């Protein structure tokens, strides 16, 4: 509840997508384009409408374009834009030192699909909870090597985007006698640092196994899981202590 009686609704996480386009033009068949957007469906319409309607100069006049797939789940714009740049410039990227350059008769779209799984396995993106969504009808091309096991692979058309809910205002109630204060239960202690879990922004994590009473701060549990990998920041998995 806001300071004036309105209801605050949590906004959904912003979509940051790095997409791959394929040209369906008979002259430019096999051409590809990699870009970044927060609205893949709208961005595809702009590419097909031309440069004057918001499309890129590299795609203008070479359409129609089809969107093969897009990768999303990046925690920030910087992480997504770095992924896009490495996909566009594999020879200059330090994340792909062992990638074979484009072969003589290899089409650009095939080369882009060959780079994608190697990018998903390269740090720092290999430790992010990314998702890959195919937009072309099946059967989908086989990615070699396969993406990491934690990358969720989806298929289908563009998801329906629901309108963002607005904050509803409620009239301020008349002054009334405040209800008696209820005794708040004591905060559970963290089983790793033994400090109380009072932070509302990051509630304690609990073990999903039935009957396990573990309760820990997210940072404490992350440090525990990262003991075998002290140079990493995000843990991939771990055993309950």
From TrEMBL:
Keyword Nuclease in annotation: yes
Segments for region (Disordered): 140-185
Pfam families (UniProt xref): GIY-YIG, SLX1_C
Pro residues bias (residue ranges): 176-185
Record-level GO BP terms: double-strand break repair via homologous recombination
The entry's keywords: DNA damage, DNA recombination, DNA repair, Endonuclease, Hydrolase, Nuclease, Nucleus
Positions with biased composition (Basic residues): 161-172
Tagged with keyword Kinase: no
PROSITE patterns: GIY_YIG
A GO cellular-component term linked to this record: Slx1-Slx4 complex
GO molecular function, one term: 5'-flap endonuclease activity
All copies of domain GIY-YIG, residue ranges: 14-99
Protein name: SLX1 endonuclease
Species for this entry: Atlantisia rogersi (Inaccessible Island rail)
């Amino acid at each position: 509840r806001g300071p004036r009686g309105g209801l605050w609704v949590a906004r959904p996480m912003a979509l940051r997508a790095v997409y791959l386009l394929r040209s369906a033009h008979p002259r430019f068949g096999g051409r590809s384009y990699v870009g970044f957007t927060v609205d893949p469906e709208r961005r595809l319409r702009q590419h097909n409408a031309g440069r004057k309607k918001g499309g890129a100069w590299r795609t203008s006049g070479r359409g129609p374009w089809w969107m093969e797939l897009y990768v999303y789940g990046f925690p920030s714009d910087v992480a997504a834009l770095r992924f896009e740049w490495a996909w566009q410039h594999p020879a200059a990227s330090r994340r792909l030192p062992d990638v074979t350059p484009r072969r003589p008769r290899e089409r650009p779209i095939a080369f882009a699909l060959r780079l994608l799984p190697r990018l998903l396995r390269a740090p720092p993106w290999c430790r992010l909870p990314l998702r890959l969504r195919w937009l072309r009808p099946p059967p989908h091309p086989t990615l070699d090597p396969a993406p990491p096991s934690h990358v969720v692979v989806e298929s289908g058309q563009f998801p329906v985007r629901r309108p963002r809910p607005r904050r509803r205002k409620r009239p301020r109630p008349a002054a009334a006698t405040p209800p008696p204060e209820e005794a708040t239960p004591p905060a559970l202690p963290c089983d790793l640092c033994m400090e109380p879990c009072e932070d509302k922004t990051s509630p304690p994590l609990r073990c999903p196994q039935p009957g396990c009473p573990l309760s820990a701060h997210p940072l404490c549990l992350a440090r525990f899981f990262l003991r075998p990998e002290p140079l990493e920041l995000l843990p991939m998995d771990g055993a309950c202590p």
